[in-house]
Amino acid sequence: MFKALQLTKGEAGFAAAVTSIDESQLPAGDVLVQVEYSTLNYKDGLAITNKGPVVRTWPMVAGIDGAGTVIESTHAGWKAGDRFVHNGWGLGETRWGLMAERARLQGDWLVKLPAAFTTRQAMAIGTAGYTAMLCVMALERHGVQPGHGEVLVTGATGGVGSVAVALLSKLGYTVVAATGKASEEAYLKQLGASSVIDRAELAAPGKPFQKERWAGVVDAVGSHTLANACAQTRYGGVVAACGLAQGADFPSTVMPFILRGVTLAGIDSVMAPLARRRQAWDRLAKDLDAAKLETMVEEVPLERAAEKAADLMSGKVRGRVIVKI
Q: Which pTM value belongs to this model?
């Protein structure tokens, strides 16, 4: 038996509770793992609070991310004792996730944990931080370099935003952080933001074409915020879009794309190919300041994960929440 945060839905309604599960109930897979840490991403918050249609099969074990140690394996690339990190691949949605002491997974989904990180640090990064790295890589791939101008990070006190600010500033970019939490200006400047703006400047409907400002954008918010960010992006600039905290709509026009050559780069972390995942984790090991990472972190036991998920969805969380299993 092992403990897990299980989500159930039936005649009695929805429930999220830590429960005991027999190992024989685990889904098929070629690697059995012991999970040491998981984490709360926005998608986990949606699932655990039942605020969005994330979970597709019931009952479900929550947790799209995990890090720990391989117990046994029939996969050629993995052996007992190997340390792993896992992000996405439908866990916590269509397949039992990693807010559990045990999980059975596909070895092809796992990334070897870089030696630079403990399992705790890996989950301080989690899908949010790994997604932030994918966004930075997209800006680089499309030619945005330090010195080209300001880079905007929206939702800056969230998980993606916090890591993006830290990464971009270490790489030499001039970072402008947008947040609705004026009290967190010192936190964002400590992470490396050169200036902080009120998210209200971007959150309302705006003109389809606005004054040029951003060389690049990392957006985890969507909706009017993304539309305004695109409308303010400079000629040839790049917008990396990875989230929908404000909404899934995109009330924009083609103007920034056909008149300024702006690139809108979609960032998917869930099904990203293994080679890109490995590259992102190698870059995180090199480019993320471990001391800055620690300032973002709050740690809770598995028994408090559901409570913190509710806080996350009501905007009461800064940075990253890691879950000690």
A: 0.93
